Amino acid sequence: MIRSSFGFASTTQDVTAGVDAGGLRVVVTGGAAGLGAETARALAAIGADVTLAVRSLDAGRRAAERISQSTRNPGVRAAYVDLAERSSIARFASDWTGPLHVLINNAGGIIPELQRTPDGWEMQFAVNHLGHFELARRLRPALAAGAAGRREARIVTLTSSGHMYSPVVFDDLHFAYRGYTDALGYGQAKTANVLFGVGATRRWAHDGIFANAAMPGPTLTGFQRNMDPERLRARIGNADIDGGEVPAGFKSIQQGAATTVFLAVSPVVSGVGGRYFENCNEAAVVPDNNGYASGVAPYALDEANADRLWQVSEHLLDR
Fold first, then answer.
1. What is the Cα–Cα distance from 205 to 225, expressed in whole angstroms?
2. Among 221, 219, 200, 227, which residue's Cα sits nearest to residue 278?
3. Which of 63, 157, 197, 272 would give a disulfide with 32, using CB separation of 3.0 to 4.6 Å?
4. Hey, how many other C-beta atoms are within 10 angstroms of the C-beta on 50?
5. Separation CA 202–CA 211 (nearest Å)
6. Which of these, 7, 92, 25, lies nearest to 55 by C-alpha position?
7. Could you give the residue numbers annotated as active site?
């Protein structure tokens, strides 16, 4: 089990101390705000060349400019990608030139009501998993090129302790027959994010590509705006999402992004893949019925589940 000297309160500044990311080329999806923006800022601050892959190009460009100014790193830019729009994923990948060293699958969301893509896929599964799966698959040659130059390339996919709400329900991925709740849809998608790391590492490690899942921990960002208001209020009390206040038991943005940044650049996890990390440490496997707790459910690391998800994902995207 991978252990580090960092923990719940560690920040992006803590985990990057002494690390030089000069020469690294990084893509961060959803990098215009929240955890994605802080992840991009922290990596730019240690010299990485960072592309914010964003759905709102205007917001992405503003974020890139802020990050460039604050870090004095001119190598920060924005490019358009909508993870629910397969053609935009294809365009982003085809426009990419040269090696890629780190892909951070950060974008995602909670969707209160059942929504479907034009392909008929449930939106949370489509955006949180399938979109990132397709992006990584199309960027694999660039990642392999990055690994060839530096001995490895890394993929970091954000997951959540919410994966405990549901395994991947292969017989009804898109809620055709079972009742939908945002928790079930989110839980299934976040489990898929963990399984992707297992499957990608099994298939791509020989190219030097290693993928892990990062659980940020309880961090108050704009991400929570789509949560059920009563459930959100029960968790954060009277704290203001936009007020900069950190409720008791929550992390700051700098603390919430620390595990992602740790997995992106720390030498501690060199050559490590297919794992689930929280608080900058590999999490213990725990019973899968323990609610919103720490640890990772066994079904989220199961190799047979990862293989089945990979096959299903390819089938959906290739047909």
1. 37
2. 219
3. 63
4. 30
5. 9
6. 92
7. 186
* Cβ-Cβ contacts under 8 Å for 248 (sequence gap 6 or more): none
Structural domains of the chain in order of their starting residue, each with its CATH number: 12-318 (3.40.50.720)
**H or E element in which residue 263 lies:** helix 258-265
Span 78-93, pLDDT tens digits:
999 999 999 999 999 9
Give the C-alpha separation, 280 to 2, whole Å: 9
Query: Residue 32 corresponds to which amino acid?
Result: A
Phi, psi torsion values for 79, nearest 5 degrees? -140, 150
The model's pLDDT over 131-176, given as tens digits with 9 standing for 90+, comes to 999 999 999 999 999 999 888 999 999 999 999 999 999 999 999 9
To 5 degrees, how large is the angle CA 173–CA 127–CA 11?
A: 120
DSSP 9: T
Q: Identify which of 161, 142, 158 has the alpha carbon closest to the alpha carbon of residue 98.
A: 142
Q: What are the angstrom distances between the C-alpha of 115 and each of 1, 145, 284?
A: 39, 37, 34
User: CA 260 to CA 104: how far, in whole Å?
Assistant: 8
**CA 163 from chain center: how many Å?**
13
Q: Distance (Å, rounded) from C-alpha 155 to C-alpha 200? A: 9
Report whether 251 contacts 219 (CB < 8 A).
Answer: yes
